[in-house]
């Protein structure tokens, strides 16, 4: 591999393309980075909540096949308590509703974060062009 030095014209063209990073630009880059980290964390939380909701729905479907007179073990904290079927079904439905609300709140937060990230991308790409990579 042969190395060569840049000619004066190439060096001038390269330095002309590079924009100076101002304090405001650095703040925007840092803000984008923090938002990206928060987005990743919220996406993981959302996946977990959706899986929990699916599991609760599956359990609810299974309980529809159980007899009314059966006592069903229900987990509260670290222990299982045997409860009548109607009570377990009401507890499951309230848990499902709460998780549904949590999922909606997480989706709302994620959309807000993504919107702000998009605005920062537009501003930073307008300022730096191809000199910066914000693709996640």
Describe the structure.
It is a single chain. The chain has 136 residues and is mainly alpha-helical. Helices cover 70% and strands 9% of the residues. The protein contains 3 helices and 2 strands, in the order H-H-E-E-H. Strands 1-2 form a two-stranded antiparallel ribbon. Helix 2 (23-63) packs antiparallel against helix 3 (85-128). The longest helix has 44 residues, at 85-128. The chain is rod-shaped and about 90 Å long. The mean pLDDT is 87.
Give the tags.
136 residues; mainly alpha; two-stranded antiparallel ribbon; 70% helix
Task: Provide the fold topology.
Elements: H1 8-17, H2 23-63, E1 71-76, E2 79-84, H3 85-128
Antiparallel strand pairs: 1-2
Helix pairs in contact: 2-3
Strand content: 5-15%
Task: Please work out how many helical segments DSSP would assign.
Answer: 3
The global form is rod-shaped
Contiguous low-pLDDT stretches (5 residues minimum) are none
| Cα-atom radius of gyration | 27 Å
What is the tally of beta strands?
2
Helix share of residues?
55-70%
Q: What is the string of SSEs from the N terminus onward?
A: HHEEH
Largest sheet: 2 strands, antiparallel
Q: How are the strands ordered across the major sheet?
A: 1-2
Structural class, from helix and strand content? mainly alpha
**Global mean pLDDT:** 87
Cα separation of the termini: 33 Å
Question: Can I get a quick summary?
Answer:
This protein has helices spanning 8-17, 23-63, 85-128; strands at 71-76, 79-84. It is mainly alpha-helical.
């Amino acid at each position: 591999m042969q190395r060569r030095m840049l000619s004066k014209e190439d060096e001038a063209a390269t330095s002309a393309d590079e924009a100076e990073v101002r304090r405001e630009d650095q703040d925007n880059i840092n803000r984008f980075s923090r938002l990206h980290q928060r987005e990743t964390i919220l996406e993981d939380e959302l996946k977990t909540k959706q899986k929990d909701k699916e599991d609760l729905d599956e359990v609810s479907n299974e309980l529809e096949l159980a007899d009314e007179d059966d006592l069903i073990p229900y987990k509260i904290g670290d222990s299982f308590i045997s409860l009548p079927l109607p009570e377990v079904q009401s507890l499951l439905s309230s848990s499902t509703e709460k998780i549904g609300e949590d999922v909606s709140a997480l989706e709302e937060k994620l959309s807000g974060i993504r919107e702000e990230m998009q605005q920062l991308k537009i501003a930073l790409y307008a300022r730096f062009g191809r000199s910066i990579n914000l693709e996640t």
